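pasting Vitamin K epoxide reductase for the record, 98 residues
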Amino acid sequence: MRRRWLLLAVLAWALFTFGPLLGVLLSSWVAGANGCRLDEAGTYPCVVAGVDVGGLLSTLFVLGWLMLVTIPVGVLVGLGGLVAWAVLLVSRRAGPRV
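structre below
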């Protein structure tokens, strides 16, 4: 049960930290694969499988600016988690002090 919570916490941390980057990469890949224009100046039509996804691609691309916040905060939270894990690991090995 503890491992499941730890895995969920790590996945949530990774999604928070790298989610905007994944959005930029995904939108750029989809736009490039379909020959669509994608930039921050506006929303352009992009038809994929008969559906215009230009607005979604534009939103994902512009949300990449969130990386300016999420990556530094995520790195600090990740380092804090590693320090807490190391302290917990060392305290378990040392055993109780009498």
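The radius of gyration is 20 Å.
The beta strands are 47-48, 51-52.
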